[in-house]
Amino acid sequence: MTEAGRIRNIPHRPRRNRSSRAMRSFVAEARVGVDDLIQPFFVIDGENQRVPVTSMPGVNRLSVDLLVEECRRTADLGIGSVALFPVIADSLKTPHGEEALNPDGLLLRTIRILKAEVPELLLFTDVALDPYSSDGHDGIVEDGRILNDETLEVLARMAVVQAEAGADIVAPSDMMDGRVGAIRTALDDAGCLETAICSYCVKYASAFYGPFRDALDSAPRAGDKKTYQMDPRNAREALREIRLDETEGADWLMVKPGLPYLDVVRLMRESTTLPVAVYHVSGEYAMLKAAAQNGWLDYEKCLVESLTGFKRAGADVILTYGAMDAARLLAAAD
Ligand code: PBG
């Protein structure tokens, strides 16, 4: 064989595909974009109120007037949706969480105002009893037990009043069995055919929700959430929840929290054709902020890297307290 025809032992150089910004962009497998993001907000009663959440630096509880301004900024950044969580006064919390259905209650008022003031934003609302429950549980508590089917009736009514107030996507975060079906049936019976359901399908009993519970003062007064939220040791069990929520009529499925459960995001991606959402939760945000405040991590770079990880794992939609920050960073990077 001639020298020219001889096949040499070719040295492999994967670095060629990393050699310039343009080269890296061509071969990038996953990208996070502003249209993937949902910004969560905490809303409080009153006017001109901005109350910082100590364990979530940069996050505030906002009264509706300030929230409207913040939502305009959110929409201007190109973010398509905001998730709303009401801070309910202790005096309004009851064992059955009746305040959740009060037509003049904080969340329903906020939905109506935002829908009128920032109509281009999709409103993503939480369906669970914990902000309204004097027990701090997502369902009705009796003798220390969380009652499943009794809770379903309240959740279904909550979803309907939220949808009628203007919610576009109702998101049951309670993990009661059968809630997606109960909510879909109630929405359809009420004529809310266009209201979508994002099921918190695979939601773990996680300690990463700590700062969120600080923000709402909604931690369980007794016990924990392990009889309804999933065990962090399990992934196969997620397949069962996925199948049930698909059958019951969910439009989106969610995994929560995010970073400790990327394997479950991937599993969900491979097991459903429905859109997959992931919640980068309060504790994940708090970790980044705390380390950044110490000068130990670059918040902005770690935020975008975390969100990119969700996309790489297969998520379509990301809820993150850093959505507006990420939107600004992504725009600046263009
Ligand atoms: C309540 C709810 C929780 C979160 C969203 N909805 C907390 C919980 O289940 O205790 C957590 C969000 C976060 O930590 O950012 N059903």
Structure description:
The protein has helices at 21-27, 64-76, 106-117, 148-165, 179-189, 210-216, 236-248, 262-271, 282-293, 299-313, 323-333; strands spanning 37-44, 50-52, 60-63, 81-86, 122-127, 140-142, 145-147, 169-172, 196-203, 252-256, 276-280, 317-320. The protein is an alpha/beta fold and 334 residues long. It has a single domain, classed as Aldolase class I (TIM Barrel, Alpha-Beta Barrel). Strand 2 and strand 3 (60-63) form a beta hairpin. The chain is globular and about 85 Å long. The mean pLDDT is 96. It binds ligand PBG.
Would you kindly provide a brief summary of this structure?
This protein has helices at 21-27, 64-76, 106-117, 148-165, 179-189, 210-216, 236-248, 262-271, 282-293, 299-313, 323-333; strands spanning 37-44, 50-52, 60-63, 81-86, 122-127, 140-142, 145-147, 169-172, 196-203, 252-256, 276-280, 317-320. The chain has 334 residues and is of the alpha/beta class. The mean pLDDT is 96.
